[in-house]
Amino acid sequence: MDYQKLFDASIDKESIQAWRSQGKKALGVICCHVPHEILYAADVLPVRLRATGCNDYNEAEVWMSSFSCSFAKSILQYFIDGIYDLDGLVTSDGCMQAVRIFDNWKAYAKKNGKDQSLFEIGAPRMSSPTTKLYYKEELKLLAGELEKLSGVTITTERLLKSIALHNEQRLLVKQLLELQKAESPVITGAEALTIMIAATNMPVETYNELLRAFLADASNRTPVSGHRARLLIIGSALDNPKYIEAIENKGGLVVADTLCLGSMAFGDELVADENDIYASIASYYLDRIVCPRMIDNRDALHDLIVKKAVDYKVDGVLYEKMQNCECWGGENTYLEPALKDVGVPILYLEREEKLANIGQLEIRAEAFIEMIEKEG
Amino acid sequence: MAYVDELLNQVIRGELSTTDYIASSVEGKLAHTLQKDPDSTWIYDLQVAQWCQIRDAQKNGKKLIAFGGPMPVDIIYAFDCQPYYLDQLPLSTAPKGDMNSKFVDLCESKTNQSMCSIDKVEMGVLLADQYGLKPDAFVYSTVPCDSSRIAYPIMEKIWGCPVFNIDLPFRRDARGAEYLVQQTREFITFMENLTGKKLDMDKMRECMEIANRSNELIGKLADLRKHTPCPLPGMILVTNACMSGMAADPAMTAFLEKELEVGEMMIELGMGACMNGEKYRMLFLQNMLWTELKAYSYMEREFGAICIMDVLGHYHPDIYEHIDDFEDCLRVMAVKMMNLPMIHGAAGPVDYYCDRITYLMDNFNINASVFLGHVGCKHTWASTKILSDFIQERYGMPTLLLDVDCIDGRYKSGEEVQNAIGEYLTTVVKL
What we know:
The structure holds 2 protein chains of 2 kinds.
Chain A: H1 13-20, E1 25-30, H2 36-41, E2 44-48, H3 58-64, H4 70-80, E3 88-92, H5 96-111, E4 117-121, H6 129-150, H7 156-179, H8 189-197, H9 204-217, E5 229-235, H10 241-248, E6 252-258, H11 277-287, H12 298-311, E7 316-322, H13 332-341, E8 346-351, H14 358-375
Parallel strand pairs in A: 1-2, 1-3, 3-4, 5-6, 5-7, 7-8
Helix pairs in contact in A: 3-4, 4-5, 6-11, 7-9, 8-10, 12-13
Chain B: H1 6-12, H2 18-36, H3 42-56, E1 64-68, H4 73-78, E2 82-85, H5 88-93, H6 97-108, H7 117-127, E3 137-141, H8 146-159, E4 163-166, H9 174-195, H10 201-224, H11 243-246, H12 250-268, E5 280-284, H13 294-303, E6 305-310, H14 326-338, H15 343-346, H16 350-363, E7 368-374, H17 378-381, H18 384-395, E8 399-404, H19 414-429
Parallel strand pairs in B: 1-2, 1-3, 3-4, 5-6, 5-7, 7-8
Helix pairs in contact in B: 2-3, 3-12, 6-7, 7-8, 9-14, 10-12, 13-19, 16-18
C-alpha cells in the first residue's frame, strides 16, 4: 500500500472535502483536550487545527494583535484564507490563545457571513474527582450538540468503536516512536513529526491503515546515519517539520519529542469502562500529560521529559518556545536542573510560526550539537 | 538636594524585604499625613491596615494565607487567618522603578520575557527571597491567566507550604457555580486541617456581614461615578483591587465609607475631580497604569479627561442575601469568584468582556474608549478588534489601542502614555 501521504506535511484539504462530500460534518479542533473519540462517534471528522507553512498572518494579526502567539494567529489566518473549509469548530480552553482563536473565528465568521457550528468546552486545569465530574458533564453536553449537528446518536457501541480505533492509532504511533529508539533509526525526527501531524486531517481508519503499511515496510528503509547528536525536542506547538529538518541538516537527529502535535497528541491506551464511558474519557484526558496548561502536572511532566531523555539516549534537549506562548514559558526553572542531574544539556530556542529566522536556528543548533558532541 | 529613599535602596541591595519596605513606607506616609493634612489620613489607613496586618500576622499568632486569583477569601477571615493577595505586591512596587525592575529581571532570567509583569514581580520577589515571610499556606485558582499558571506552581514549589487549588469553570453558569460550591466545601476542609479547628459559623456570619457592607459601599461608589461631573478622581480606582483580598476586613469598610462621604460631598458642592471642568469621560477597557498614577491627575487637569472606570477592575457587588443559609452563601461565594475583577471579563469567552463593557457604557455616560493594554495580558490583546468593533458598532465610538506595561515602567513612560491619550482625545474624539 502506498503510504506516501504520511510524508506530506501540508494540510490535506482533499480528505476533508471527501468526507464532507458524503454529507458528513467536519469540525476544526483546537488543543488536546477535545476528545476526538466523541466527535468520531458522532460521525464528525475532527480536524486538529494547525498552520503548517503559514508565512503571512497579517490579517489575523489585525484581529489578534502583535502580542499574540503566532501559531494561534496562523490558524485564524488559514480560516480567513479558506485553507480550512469546515463546518465549524470545537475548542477547549487549552490556553488563553486557544480561547481567542475561537472568539475571533466566531467574530470573523459572523462578520463575513460564514455559517459555522461552534462549540466550546471547559477543560479543568486540575485533575481531581471533582474536576473530572465537571469535565464529564462538559463532554456529555458536547456529545449532545454533536448529535444535533450530525443527526447521529452517539451510542455506547459507537463510542466504544471510536475509542478502539483511536487506541489502535495510539498503539501504531507507539510503534513508530519505538523505531526512533534505535541507534540508527529508519526515520528522521522531521519525518516522524510529518507522519504524526498527518493524523490531524484524515479519518482515523485511513491513518491507521497508512501507518500500518508504513510500519510493515519500515525495516526496508535505510537507517539514518552520520548524525552527531541525538536530540529530544520539547516545547510549544510545533507543526512544521522543516524546523526540525533545519536542525537535522546541522548534524542533530531528533529521536523523541514531547510536542502536543507530536507524540503527546496520542498518549497511552484509553481504557473505557462500559458502564460510564464519559467518566473514562474525562479521567483519561485530565490525567494524560500533554503540556503545562494544567497547574498540577509539572512534576509529572518534568519526570516524563527526563525519562524520555534517558530512554531515547539523547545527548541534548531542544526547548523551543513560541514567542508569546505562556504555557511553555516557565519550565526551565525546574526542568533544567532535573535534566542536568541526568547529564543532559538543554538549548532554549524562541521561534515564530513562520520560519523567518531559520539561519539563526541553524547556527545555534550547530553550536549546541558541537558542544554536546564533544561532551559525548 | 534630591530625596533618597534609603529603604528602597536596601530592598535593591537585598537587605530589606518587600513586605517590610511597603509596610514601613505606608506607615511613614500616614505619619506624615497626620501632621500635614489629618483629613486625608483615610487614604493611607487602608494601606497601613493591609500591609501591617500581612507583616505582623504570624507575630500575632495568625496564619498567613497567600492567595492568587479568585478564592473564597471571606472563609480565610472566618478562620481568623490573614489573607495576602499576592497581586497587591506588584501593584505596590510598580511605581518604584529600580526596585520593581530588579524583580522583573530576576524572574525573566528563569522564565520568559513575554510573561505578565504582575507575575514576574510576584515570582521575582520569591526568587530573591525578599517576601520577608513564608506563608502558612498558598492557595490559588487556575485563573486569571496563562502567566499565573506558570508562576504559581513554581512559587508553590519554592515555598513548599501546604497548597490548595480551585479550578474556575470556563463558563459562568449555574453548573459552574455548583462546581465552585463543591470546591469551596473542599477548601473549608483544607482550612480546618490547616488550622486544626472547625469553621466557626458565628465568625463566618460576622465576616460575611462585613463583606456585605463593603460590597454595598463599592456598589454605591460605582454609582457615584455615574454622576457628571465624576466626583472622584480616576486614580482612586486602583483601590478597587483591595476588595479582592479585604472585603471582609473592617479597614476596607472604613475606607469605602470615607471615600463615599468625600464623593457625596463633592456632588453636593457641585464639584468634580477635573479641576478645570470635565470634558472626556473615559472607559479604560483593560487595567490601570499602576506605574504612573499621576498620569491620571495630569489628564484630569490638562484635558478634562477622567477615567470613569477600568473594565477589568470594575467590582461587581455581590451580597449574601440569606446569611443564615450557608448553602446559599456558598453559592454567593461562587458567584463572587466568577465576578472578581479581571476574572469576570478576561478569563473566559470574550462575550463576558463585551457584557461588562455594555453595562459600563450604558450606565456611566462614557464618551471616550481607551484600551490601555498591558502587554503581558496577551489574551485581552487578542480580543481588541472584537472589543473595538463592538464599541464602534454599538456606540459609534472609536477606541484608542495603546500598549503599556502596567507594572514595568521601563516599557513606556507615564508622560508618553498621557500625551498619547491626550492627542487622541483632542484630535480624534474632539468634544
